[in-house]
Amino acid sequence: MSNVNTKINILGIEFQNPVTVASGTFGSGMEYSEFVDLNRLGAVTTKGVANVPWEGNPTPRVAEVYGGMLNAIGLQNPGIDLFIERDIPFLKKYNTKIIVNVCGHAIEEYIDVVERLREQPVDALEINISCPNVKQGGIAFGTDPHLAEEVTRKIKAVAKQPVIMKLSPNVTSIADMARAVEAGGADGVSLINTLTGMKIDINRRKFLLANRTGGMSGPAVKPIAVRMVYEVHKAVRLPIIGMGGIQNADDALEFMMAGASMVSVGTANFINPRATLDVIEGLENWCEKQGVKDINEIIGCVE
User: Which domains does the chain have, with CATH numbers?
Assistant: First the structure.
């Protein structure tokens, strides 16, 4: 047993450690439960849930690139009905917090899901206003401060659980977006979502993804993500869940020192299903070696 206190208190919730998973990289935990003891995670953040099932984008919709990957899945999901019937009961078997990622094409669709989750035993909501793959205008919420504030305010008006707004990096100033959702009443923010990218098949002279563009994730985006977390930490008083290219505990420590209270492991899960556990154990080992008794000491410690 580690002597380090890894508990994090944010959003009115006590998490046993600061590690969760990035939405869309872990399903609702079922696929990973044979590799990872979900009881060890601070929280499971689910794949995006919409008010009705979404088919997602046509294939091919994943491409490997230097330092990461592009995905244009398009938020394929079975919808809120199946999520309530199947996924929540599965996750409730484990001693971990549940953060539900909510997606929508319009404010009304977000609100529909948030209202359905009011009486469900989930701990927090992460609102995806930033996925760059949804053609029906999903990107607009995450790139326009006025829209971001409006959708935050309307969701907060009906939500029972704390609301985390997931911010897009595809903006001129992520600090402005953070201020907008803070003004709308957000309880926390998570960042970054994927950066919009493109890959071309030079032999076929065609786009590699059927969608043309996709979301770039993986180690190559980490320095950008760390910088944005730092900027948001300086701009608002909201707790931050940091993500973007975290592969190991060293990466997670950078995010926490920049101001993140928690971290999400995403793309790393695809190459190492145990990545989350490696991060948790690595954080404990680092703290013990450094003589850090409470992991909260390092949050935002760089000036």
Answer: 8-54+75-196+218-298 (3.20.20.70)
- Backbone phi and psi for residue 85, each to the nearest 5 degrees, phi listed first: -75, -40
CB atoms within 10 A of CB 36: 20
In order along the chain (303 residues), what is the average pLDDT of each group of 10 residues? 90 98 95 96 97 91 96 90 97 98 91 97 94 49 90 97 96 97 98 96 97 96 98 98 98 98 98 97 98 98 93
DSSP 118-155: TTSS--EEEEE---TT-TTTHHHHHH-HHHHHHHHHHH
- Dig out the tokens for 25 from the structure: 């990289």
CA distances, 199 to each of 67, 70, 76, 87, 170 (Å): 13, 8, 21, 34, 17
Residue 89: phi, psi to the nearest 5? -60, -35
131 is catalytic: yes
Owner of token pair 């599965």: 90
**Which amino acid is it at 74?**
G
Q: What one-character DSSP code corresponds to residue 47?
A: P
Q: What kind and span of H or E run contains 80?
A: helix 80-82
Burial 187-201 (b: 16+ CB within 10 A, else e): bbbbbbbbbbbebee
Find out whether 80 and 102 touch, Cβ atoms under 8 Å. no
**Which of 103, 131, 287, 301 is labelled catalytic?**
131
pTM: predicted TM-score of the whole model, two decimal places: 0.96
CA of 284: how far to CAs of 5, 63, 291, in Å?
Answer: 9, 34, 10
Among 153, 156, 123, CA closest to 20? 123
For residue 92, give Cα distances in angstroms to 26, 110, 167. 16, 23, 27
The β-bridge partners of 163 are 125
